[in-house]
Amino acid sequence: MRNLYIDVRIGNVIAVLKPLFWLLLIEVLVFTILALIPQGHDVYVYLLEEGFWTNAVPIILLFIALIFLSCSSGLGGEMILSQSETIWLPKLPEDVPENPDQTNAGYGSFRSWLVTFLWYFPYLSFLLGLYKVIAFQKKTDSEGFGNTAIFLTLFFTGLGLWLIFKVRKGIWRYIRYRLEKIHNDDKKASEFIQDFRGAGKVKLKDFKPLINILCVFFTFSVLLFIVFAFLPSNFYYFIGAAALMVFGLGTWTNVYVAVELIDKLYKVNPFSFTFNGRGYSLSLKMVILIWVLICSYFNSDHPVNALDGAPLKPNVTLAENLDRYHRTFKPDGTKIPIVFVAVDGGASRTGLFGAMMLSVLQDNLPDFKNHVFAYSDISGGTLGANVFYALSRDGLVTQDKSDTCFTEQSRRFFKRDFLAPVIGTFLFGDALGYFWPGYIPKFDRGLALETEWQAAWKDIMPFLKNKTENAMELGVKRMLEISDTAKYFKPVMFINSHEVETGKRAIYSNVLMNDTVFSAISNLNNRVNRDLPFSSAILFSARFPLISPSVAVEVDGIKRHYVDGGYFESSGTLTLYEALLSLEDSLKSNMYDVFVIHLDGSEELAKDANKGNRFLNEPLDIITGAISDQSGHTEFATENLKNYVSRRYKKSHFITLKVGDKLKDVPVNWVLSNGAINRVLKRCKDIWATPDLDELKQAIGFSLPINKQSQRLRR
């Protein structure tokens, strides 16, 4: 009998959890985002920096969103349980009499605990993440986290939990009051509420006050969809990524609860049909799924954002551009320094590091930008490299003041919250687009990210010589094209992407690529038949689903999709290696001093950090192997380029500069806090002071201190 009792308890737990599967999945997602991943932690830091000292709107909206999500989760869970058979009835032996107390074993307490969990868990997840962030900031002595921030955080802790408690209590007090009015019987109202919290189904027609409250939540969710879906993308910046994420999860929770209740309430529905004499009924969830699949077939899958002009069609080879590079320097008998740059992928982490490190070099070596011959970049590194390139092209008003140097402009660009428009468009716009068979540009989160890059460039335009043209909005043809008649030099740009259908590397460039050297690639210049905004060309390399969608390019009825270049390898060194191979004959002479700079965005890990799979190794080996494949490609490409440069030129001329910080310090994210930005800036300045760059400094014309010159002579 004891074993039967235990079986009943376990069965009742499973019976209660089963109807809440999707709701609990949302709770797991909430906990992961708000309490676990470093991206969520740095968003908190960003909010605390901005919210407590300059703009309190995002953190207040986040507070409201958390209350909304907690109430939606708790009330939705109670409604779903009230419409489900949530008690397990075991088949008893004939000689064992039925015992209601035993059958209900563990049910009441577990249901009560679970409902309370659903009401408070989202807010508690937020608090856990927030406390971890404050502990980390205090430990690292970061700016802006004094006693005021801690006091306000504790205040929000108490206020939030108190509000959730009061809302929950107020809802049920209102329901009880309305039931008493309807039935004119306090005892009957108590019985209805007791039945609602019992194991069996209840008739919702007896709970009209509760239906009214659910309608209020659902109506508010619909209003949020309408407002946020059609809101201009630059407004997302003022709401904040965190509030948008939580509001989005709350609205979709209410939509799910509404669909679930419709399925349970209407057994005979418009989607019933008869086949071979048997009756069938499709649930609303199944109908929605079928409709989404149909829309997916007809939808144009986020087409590339194109302009009306002619496309970028390179007609200059690498060797021909090298001749132009050579002609820009006066022959004086010394070797001409020539720099090749590869920048890792990693959203704003490597985007900031790439732009900031190149800017530090430029601010200290004013001629540095003129010696960069080629960039090969991936994902966020593509954004960083092209921000530096555009700064070099447009020029600064002056470099005498601290707020007009290259470093400060890179900082100003990446200080903007690029994540908010992506999250807002994804949860409220793009998600609705899945239910429509046509493409709606307003709902494209890729376009939202581009628009935010353009807005970030507008922030730095007052400090540029070119104050009239937004580089991110200009056509890529104008920004990158190397004319065969032009006598001036323009650097080579390799924007690395990945073709989904073939698995090939895809490259968009401003030079002709030799098929015998750049082997087995998809040449994007041959597939794109119109001009693109500069921001769209950059985004070809930085589309990492689900954050930004794949882009579709269709030519002659053949559609191809392109995603983040880091799917193949995330350093850009493979393309740079092929470029050096292509120039091997041209670089044979003693005219050039070749340097390769690899801006490495990986975190510093101990050699024994990966101890291997110890649990469920067979299924995990499949997943881990697929993920690690990219890391293996990256390491191979980097080492291959390093060995080539070491053999052919000089070992010290392959310069690896690492951002170094752990992911929790500078996360892979499209928004970075001031603390993270300051850590990257400090790292770049520290790198500048290391001897790794001495040969590059001397080659480009930097005067080394006397003691370093004497050390070099002794070597």
TrEMBL record:
Residue spans crossing the bilayer: 20-37, 57-81, 113-134, 146-165, 210-231, 237-259, 418-436
UniProt KW keywords: Membrane, Transmembrane, Transmembrane helix
Record carries keyword Lyase: no
Transmembrane in keyword set: yes
Protein name: PNPLA domain-containing protein
